[in-house]
Design brief:
- The complex is a heterodimer.
- Helices cover 71% and strands 4% of the residues of chain A.
- By secondary structure, chain A is mainly α.
- Chain A has one domain: Orthogonal Bundle (ABC transporter involved in vitamin B12 uptake, BtuC).
- Chain B is of the alpha/beta class.
- Chain B folds into four domains: 181 residues, 3-Layer(aba) Sandwich (Rossmann fold), CATH 3.40.50.300; 65 residues, no CATH class; 166 residues, Rossmann fold (3-Layer(aba) Sandwich); 77 residues, no CATH class.
- Chain B contains 19 helices and 24 strands.
- Classes of the chains: A mainly alpha, B alpha/beta.
- Chains A and B meet through helix 1, helix 10, helix 11 and helix 15 of A and helix 11, helix 12, strand 20, helix 14 and helix 16 of B.
Chain lengths: 366, 532
């Protein structure tokens, strides 16, 4: 450590062009977010209205929750295409349990579980689907893309089968069954901020702590960076991988519940193509699809940029076709900038190392 | 660069050659800097027309870098490349091919999923109106195989071939190109003696056709047999250049190693303690029959450095992998401090106190996107946890202590691991292993690909660890190195232990001949009855 202290002492702070450029590149996602907010609030007077903020943040919350789970998966160099379908299936499971209960044919009775039990069952179902993804990937060595693509179809299929393609409407429960209150998850608020945003904030905080401060998080990064080396360092690679898909499934189930509750209905097509938005948010936030690089902070900002961009363009009356063009361009541009930043950081690190060896002329003679 | 050797390195010497030779290709004053190392320092290398130009040097001397520059795969930091006296620029391997420079790499560069024929003509397919002319490709390959005296089916998949056969395909590939200069980087490393003879006949044929050969090999007798001129590289410098006729094997070794050998490979005496590790009947079956490890038994004392010598594929790395828990299919008993080890996963072996420093640092040792400190702590994270969270303070302390103990040169512990030189990266991998507080260290070629200075530091560290009572298994292919550091040396060949020598008994000849037991080359000399 002495050497590090010495070298920083030898170079008093001089803020050069590279420092500023580095700062811009490093904080690019945040800068982009501020820019997007600024531009829309100038162009559209309603943009900053409370009502709009509430709607937008709800949209952001859903995508951010999916993206948090997706971040874990992508950090291990995997991918989860099934999140949208798990959203749909868990919504249908929750809706079905409220409206139809659990039929126990051998007793000739129907049991209506309590709302909390229903939420718990749905979350467990989503986690289980994630676990199946993980086991197929690790035990049977199926590529994550294929395994989760399979789950995308299977889960969506079951979502349709659950009620023959019909919606479970008006899922508010009945007081005599003691299963009311499900709609409060989507409509209720605490301190004027809706539950879904609190949930997102909680998930984000926990996920951040897990990635930064828990051995499990370090293992996730290590697996994405070099699976063989991680294995040799004693990381239990397969259980860790199964766990990240379970996290992703759990987050998806949470989103399924929130959407069903907001709409007070469970539709089998809920969450279709949400996986792409989640992946976009993760990538926009600077997490590398090759694994090992990135983090939750970037993902949250990425989710905000994508959500605000989408809603803002709608408010401005931009055609939905142009919205897609802009969104696609922004995602690719973000990755291009990301690469530039990675190269630059590498160069800076090499420079520092060379400065160090020039201050130690006896490098090879120690 | 190398300050260990007090005598200045001799300047590049022109060949003492009576008849004037035509220089076809010349690397002129080439310097190549990699982050942290000077791979080549003002190297001049001549390739004479129609001759076999041999290039030798120890691992890390700069041979491969020089070859990559001549083949267009790397760009020199400074210096010129002259072809027929005219300067040429080789920006890509394709540029080199266009100038008639072909290369057979040491690592096989074949696509295992394609057929022999497709590989040989890859990117140079014979075309008839834009469509691949399979028929004439097949004919060419059949003729080539006749010339190389091999009967390999042109339609066979490369993944189905033996390594030796794949090597032949590499050579055939180079022969289909119209080359003026052919670079061969260890072409015989996977060939049998009979196959080597065929290759040498092909080389003679090529020489006759005026093709210039650049030949790299570690097999010194082989060089004397085939070479015309020899150039010796050491630590990025040309230290000698002579016609082969004037020199012999001891001369080559002296030039390669220099006089710094004793100071690089220091051995410190230390006492060995009680038996720490006992391995009995360790067996690892080979896919498709036979054994990678055939009932291996040995023991290791505390504070002992046990060397493992052998040829490539002798089973040394497999042995280390088995001990480290990377091969759950292995059978046999392993006792650590008298207790039989039950679990056979890496994490269980780490917990028991066996840690492996892997042979291939890039593939198995480093996590490239992570910083130095995160790489170093990966194997021992549970030690820095307070119930749930990682404690930054104790993590930092462990890292800084290791950086100091192993004198790892970093600007900051949080810098990317990829910005370090090979030697410092290796020390980080060492630190990662040591932080798990092991009892037994398995070092698989720990000095591969690092410069001499870092090598001697690694030696110091290993000596120090032995003194502290660690049991150390030291695997190396470099004779000098293993003889210098080991208290005892076990030689392996074809999955069997074929020799065991104490420090005083061991000589280069004994080690080498034991390492050839079971190989066809020396069957007549040593007999084949050493198998159990």
């Amino acid at each position: 450590m002495n050497t590090a202290k010495v070298s920083s002492a030898q170079h008093p702070r001089r803020i050069g062009r590279t420092d500023i450029l580095q700062f811009i590149l490093y904080g690019r996602a945040f800068i982009a977010l501020i820019l997007v907010v600024l531009i829309f609030s100038i162009l559209s007077p309603q943009f900053l209205s409370t009502q709009n903020m509430v709607i937008m943040s709800k949209h952001v919350a859903q995508n951010a929750l999916l993206a948090i789970g997706m971040t874990f998966v992508i950090l291990t160099a995997g991918i989860d295409l099934s999140v949208g379908s798990i959203v749909g299936l868990t919504a249908m499971i929750a809706g079905g349990l409220i409206n139809e209960g659990i039929r126990l044919d051998f007793l000739g009775a129907v049991v209506y579980p309590h709302t909390w039990t229903i939420i718990l069952i749905s979350l467990m179902a989503g986690t289980l689907m994630g676990a199946i993804n993980g086991i197929v990937i690790t035990r049977f060595r199926v590529a994550p893309f294929i395994a989760t693509l399979g789950m995308l179809y299977v889960a969506r299929g079951f979502a349709g089968l659950r009620n023959n393609g019909y919606t479970f409407a008006n899922i508010v429960g009945r007081p005599e069954f003691g299963n009311t209150g499900f709609e409060r998850l989507g409509a209720g608020d605490f301190l004027g901020i809706s539950y879904s945003i609190w949930i997102m904030a909680t998930f984000a905080l926990v996920a951040w702590l897990v990635t930064k401060r828990l051995p499990f998080g370090r293992h996730v990064y290590a697996i994405g960076g070099n699976e063989r080396a991680a294995e040799l360092s004693g990381v239990r690679v397969n259980p860790t991988k199964v766990a990240v898909y379970m996290i992703s499934g759990f987050c998806s189930a949470m989103v399924g519940l929130i959407i069903a509750s907001e709409l007070v209905a469970a539709h089998p097509a809920t969450g279709e193509s949400y996986e792409l938005n989640a992946i976009a948010a993760v990538v926009l936030g600077g997490t590398s699809l090759a694994g090992g690089r990135g983090g939750i902070g970037g993902t949250i900002i990425g989710a905000f940029v994508i959500g605000i961009l989408g809603d803002g363009l709608v408010m401005l009356g931009v055609s939905s076709f142009w919205q897609k063009v802009i969104k696609g361009a922004v995602i690719v541009l973000a990755v291009i900038i990301d690469q530039a930043q990675a190269r630059m950081q590498e160069r800076i690190a090499l420079q520092k190392q060379q400065e160090l060896s020039s201050t130690l002329p006896n490098e090879t003679n120690a | 660069m190398n300050l260990i050797d007090p005598t200045p390195l001799p300047e590049f010497l022109p060949p003492r050659n009576p008849e004037p030779q035509q220089i076809v290709l010349r690397a002129d004053n080439i310097t190549k800097v990699f982050p942290g190392t000077l791979a080549l320092d003002k190297v001049t290398f001549n390739v004479y027309g129609g001759k076999v130009n041999v290039l030798v040097g120890e691992n890390g001397a700069g041979k491969s870098t020089l070859m990559k520059i001549l083949a267009g795969a790397e760009q020199p930091t400074s210096g010129r490349i002259l072809l027929d006296g005219k300067e040429i620029r080789l920006r890509t391997p394709l540029d080199a091919t266009r100038h008639g420079i072909g290369i057979i790499y040491q690592e096989l560069n074949l696509c295992p999923n394609l057929s022999v024929m497709d590989n040989i003509f890859l990117a140079r397919e014979i075309r008839k109106q834009g469509v691949i002319d399979k028929k004439s490709e097949r004919e060419t390959v059949i003729n080539l195989m006749k010339r190389l005296e091999h009967s390999i089916d042109p339609d066979a998949l490369v993944s189905d071939l033996r390594i030796g056969q794949q090597q032949i395909i590499e050579i055939a590939k180079a022969l289909t190109q119209e080359v003026r200069v052919l670079i061969m980087d260890e072409p015989t490393s996977a060939l049998s003696a009979a196959e080597v003879e065929v290759l040498f006949r092909v080389i003679e044929e090529l020489k006759f056709q005026g093709v210039s050969i650049v030949y790299i090999s570690h097999k010194l007798e082989e060089l004397l047999q085939i070479g015309d001129f020899i150039t010796v590289l050491r630590d990025g410098h040309v230290v000698a250049h002579e016609p082969i006729a004037d020199i012999d094997v001891p001369w080559i070794i002296e030039q390669m190693v220099g006089r710094s050998l004793a100071s690089v490979f220091s051995h410190e005496d230390h006492k060995s303690g009680d038996t720490l590790l006992r391995v009995e009947n360790l067996t690892l079956p080979r896919k498709g029959g036979g054994y990678l490890l055939n009932h291996i038994s040995f023991d290791l004392r505390a504070g002992e450095i046990l060397g493992f010598y052998g040829l490539m594929g002798a089973g040394r790395s497999d042995m280390a992998d088995c001990l480290a828990g990377r091969r759950p299919e292995a059978s046999g008993q392993i006792y650590l401090c008298g207790q039989e080890l039950k679990g056979n996963s890496v994490s269980e072996r780490l917990a028991a106190g066996i840690v492996l420093i892997p042979e291939d640092r890039q593939r198995d040792g480093l996590i490239p996107p992570l910083s130095v400190d995160h790489n170093m702590l990966l194997a021992s994270l549970q030690k820095y946890v307070n119930k749930v969270f990682l404690l930054r303070k104790s993590e930092e302390k462990a890292v800084l202590d290791m950086i100091r103990d192993l004198s790892i040169r970093v600007a900051s512990p949080t810098q990317p691991i990829t910005s370090l030189s090979g030697g410092n990266q290796q020390k980080v991998v060492f630190a990662k292993g040591l932080l798990t507080e092991p009892k037994v260290l398995l070092l698989d070629e720990p000095t591969r690909g690092i410069d001499v200075g870092a090598k001697s530091e690694i030696f110091e560290i290993v000596n120090r660890l032995a003194k502290q009572g660690y049991g150390i298994i030291f695997i190396s292919s470099e004779l000098k190195e293993i003889m210098a550091i080991s208290d005892r040396i076990i030689v392996m060949s074809k999955g069997l232990i074929t020799g065991e020598f104490s420090r005083d008994e061991a000589t280069e000849e004994k080690l080498v001949s034991a390492s050839f037991i079971g190989h066809s080359l020396n069957d007549t000399k040593n007999g084949n009855n050493h198998h159990k």
